[in-house]
Write a structure and sequence with these properties.
Elements lengths: L1 E4 L5 E7 L4 E5 L20 E6 L21 H11 L4 E6 L2 H11 L4 E7 L12 H8 L8 H12 L5 H6 L10 H9 L5 H7 L7 H8 L6 E6 L7 H8 L5 E6 L6 H4 L1 H12 L1
Parallel strand pairs: 3-4, 3-5, 5-6, 6-7, 7-8
Antiparallel strand pairs: 1-2, 2-4
Length: 277
């Protein structure tokens, strides 16, 4: 691991995997970036700079919990770019980390090269994801042995009566296959810092109108990769997000859930490496 200081003095950590031109990788969660692994072998094509967001992994807890807010962490990404000595950086972000990447690109468009958003969170741009959208995706899995219990839990959550066990029960919907490896990986990607999660999307974290306006002028290429089965970031929502950019490429990976590099590493790496160049 390598460390650097955020503008407020918080000690942040990142790890490097692979060789070649660097790409800054932002995890979702907020969770330890280790769940990204080497992104299915993408490290054979690019040097991955995997950031532990503040309060996760080996990055320190900040003195001010309000600094977990998404918009305030934009300064952490910019500090990492400066620490790496890059005039501008390609950025790859997964899940909720895409909200941070979107805010970073909106605030520092000249510091971003290519932007790859993998099964992205879309709250930063105000794209709505509703129950029927998730339900329709879930029904594509009705042939799976775990479907009845998982679907009942999803219905309870959609109706507002879900419990903690229901959230655990819908985990198979996030993976293209639900085997032992998928179970371990999904568990490893779950946040452990509840305070970081609570503050990330706190009031003021997002300004969809201004962010959309800024991204409409973002001139560089953007890849948005959706998973066919992904309930967290349904392809319909990712498609709407793609429409906000002048130069967006939209890819829906067949058979993939929320972690497409796990479901079909070869297809994922081929898509992303071709985009990043």
């Amino acid at each position: 691991m390598t460390f650097f200081a955020a503008p407020d003095g918080t000690r942040l950590a990142y790890r490097e995997v692979g060789d070649g031109e660097p790409v800054i990788c932002l995890p979702g969660g907020p969770a330890d970036s280790r769940y990204l692994g080497d992104l299915g072998g993408l490290s054979a094509h690019r040097r991955l700079i995997l950031l532990d967001l503040r309060g996760t992994g080996l990055s320190a807890l900040p003195a001010d919990a309000a600094s977990y807010r998404c918009d305030r962490q934009v300064a952490d990404v910019e500090a990492l770019r400066e620490h790496l000595g890059l005039p501008r950086a390609d950025v790859l972000a997964h899940s909720g980390g895409a909200n941070l990447a979107l805010r970073y690109a909106a605030r520092h468009p000249r510091r971003v090269g290519r932007l790859a958003l993998i099964t992205p969170g879309v709250r930063a741009v105000g794209v709505r994801i509703d129950g029927p959208m998730r339900r329709a995706r879930a029904l594509r899995r009705k042939g799976e042995p775990w479907f009845p219990a998982a679907f009942a839990a999803l219905e309870a959550i959609t109706e507002g009566t879900g419990t903690g066990s229901d959230w655990e029960a819908i985990a198979p919907f996030f993976c293209g296959r639900w085997d032992a490896e998928a179970r371990l990986h999904h568990a490893a990607g779950q946040p452990v810092n509840g305070e970081a999660v609570a503050h990330f999307a706190a009031e003021g974290a997002f300004d969809p109108e201004d962010t959309r306006a800024a991204l409409a002028a973002f001139a560089n290429p953007v890849l948005l990769l959706a998973g066919e089965y992904d309930l967290n970031s349904p392809p319909e929502a990712v498609t709407e997000c793609a429409g906000l950019f002048p130069r967006a490429s939209l890819v829906e990976q067949p058979g993939a859930g929320h972690y497409p590099w796990m479901d079909d590493p070869g297809r994922f790496v081929a898509t992303v490496s071709a985009f990043l160049g």
